[in-house]
Structures are given as structure tokens and as C-alpha cells.
Amino acid sequence: MKIAVIGIGAVGSVIAREMMMLPHDTTLFGRSRKEGFTIQEDGESRHYPYTIEDINAYEGDAFDVIFIATKATALKAISRLIPRMAHDDTEVILCENGMGFDEYFAAPIPAVVYISGQKHADRVEHFQDARLLIEDRPLPYTDRIIDDLEATTGVELEIEKAADFGRIRHEKLLINLGINSLTALSNNTAKIFDLENVTDLTRRLLGEGLDIINREREIIDPSFIDKALSIYQSYNREMGTSMYYDVMAEASTEYMYIQKYFQQHKGDLDTPVLDIIVTLLDAYQYER
Questions:
Q1: CB-based contacts of 219: which residues, under 8 Å, 6+ apart?
Q2: What pTM, to 2 d.p., does this model score?
Q3: Which domain of life is it from (predicted)?
Q4: Structural domains present in the chain
Q5: What is the pLDDT of residues 146-189, one digit of tens each?
Q6: Contact by Cβ (8 Å): 39, 16
Q7: What does the DSSP 8-state code read for residue 76?
Q8: How far apart (Å, rounded) are the C-alpha atoms in residues 82 and 63?
Q9: Dist. CA 243–CA 251, nearest whole Å
């Protein structure tokens, strides 16, 4: 079986490391050719000497499974490269935050990603978790990978199928709405949830997001807001988010697929907190 991992960053490096431990032909791809990558965990760094190929230069055989672990902002461009890397039955697994990008691909398999880390210039710092949740349906190639992950000693990655995947995906989107918005706009880490006024504002934002998700039918129980706030407060106080790290690096963010996605689907709902947050992120992104 041929496997590709595209994007060897905070998420993709962990997936790549685990795939290279399986008895399959795995190729890693980035924006340019590079020799190896380094992952730091629990204060210790380890270098993995696997070649990362230039995705734009690939002219080889088609892959059976393609994990795409880039920023969501890169997906539209990558979708144009996939036809020459895939056959009719290739399973393309999208490992990004947010929603609104499935349409770029013919038959994508979106994953809810639980891999927390930060990409530095010379390494990836992996904070916690190594788990992907996908929809519960037959996926011949991915099912083989799931079996191999369970049978291989030393592997940390888990790929699980969830019967209620739609609800779980929307819950993760709501979690991303709250913590990504507040950490990015405050330029601060999860420690901000020590502050009562930050928690109160986040609760209002989550409430607006919940109303949007449940606008046509109830997908998420309203009690999930309390759970989301508890999750934020359980994080390491120094842990950032993808949008926080993007803002700190003065890079583009994925807000089109999180905050803007909510705003585009709100209909006639009144969402004053969300609207202010989107306006501020529009301003940050302007001509960047």
C-alpha cells in the first residue's frame, strides 16, 4: 500500500513519524525537498532522517491513502495537485482545523484532529495527543492502516471511527472558535482563561456559535458550552493555538474556515461578539 503525508508541520510530522513505522511505502511531501525533521517532546528532541519530497515535482505512481496536514489556507492549491497523485479509489484524509474546504476535493475524508503542537524554524514541538477521528464508514485502505496501528509496537497515533462524527466535528469547530479567537486576538496563551472577563466573553461567543450550528436542527446540546470552557481551563497555561502562533509569526490565519465560516452561516441571527471578532481578524489579515 502506498501512503502519502502532505505537510510535515505540527500535525503532519506526528502522522508522518507514525506512518513510517508501518509496513507500507510512505512518502512525505512539503513545499520543497528537505532531509528529515525534528520533533521535541517532553523537553527532548529527536531527529527523523526521512526525506521530504517537493510536492510540486512529484511524477510517480498514485497513492492509496493521502493524509493532508497543511494549513487549511493551502488546501485549494493542493487540491489541484491531487488528481495526478491519486487513483479512482484513493482515500484523501483532511487533517485541518475548521470547515468549508471539503468542496475542494472529489471525495474527501475529513478528520477531527487531536494533535497539539507548534512548528518552530528547526523543529516541531509536540505538546499532547495523537488521535484522528473520522466518519464510521467502510474505507478499505484506511481500515488496513487502523489495523496496522493497533498491531505495531511503539506507535502512538490512533485513528478512530465515530458514528456521531457530524456532531463531534461541529463540537471541535466550536472549541476552535472560542480558544483560537481569544488567544489570537490577545496574543496570549491558554492562561487567559484564568481571567473571569475572558471566560465570560468566550461564553458569549460560544453561545452565538452554538446558535448558528443549531439554527436548523439541534446538533450540539447547549450544555457543551460548559464542557468547552472546562477544556480550555484544563490546557497547559503556556499552550497556544494554531491561530495564536500564526499571529505571533505575523502569518496568515485560518479564520476563513473558523470564524468567517460561522459568520457566513449565521443567517439572520444576531451575533455581536462574533461580528466584532471577524472584523478584527479581517483587519489583521488585510493586505497580509
A1: 166, 167, 170, 213
A2: 0.95
A3: Bacteria
A4: 2-162 (3.40.50.720), 166-285 (1.10.1040.10)
A5: 999 999 999 999 999 999 999 999 999 999 999 999 999 999 99
A6: no
A7: H
A8: 10
A9: 9
